[in-house]
Amino acid sequence: MKKLIKRYRVFIIVFLAMIILVLVNRPLGTKAFTITGNSILEMLLVIPPIFVLLGLLDIWVPRETMIKYMGEGSGLKGIILSIIIGSAAAGPLYGAFPVAAVFMKKGVKFMNILIFIGAWSTTKIPMFLFEITALGSRFAISRLLIDIPGIIIIALILSKTVSREEVKILYENAKAMD
Description:
DUF318; membrane; transmembrane; cell membrane
């Protein structure tokens, strides 16, 4: 029981704070519970399809193929593929992290994983199409032309800054999730 409470202590603290909020300010507390409930519902609708697709990726795509196209020696094709996969992905950013964990298990280069996460968060195709219609093609294309090199530069800096030992621990943790 102690272990369970320790594991979920942040959740318990936040839940108790929300109950106190309801007691102190009922409309604000009710709104907080409503927003939290909607967020949980959204997660429950998004996460299962992502995990189904991850299971299929894990089974259908051999490790050797992932290493060939996105591993250490992949070069420019790994970068381009990371951007394309991240841009074509659907769902909120928290859906990118389980995909990144599967990529780690498959031997994808750390920099390509960072590029994938950056592309998922910044260069989604539906967002680009919305920007073209709402803000104009000049803005949308300019933003994309700034974001893509920015993502690559940030990924390069992070991959050089993070120590090999830390990257190794990340990969080991991803493999341990089986």
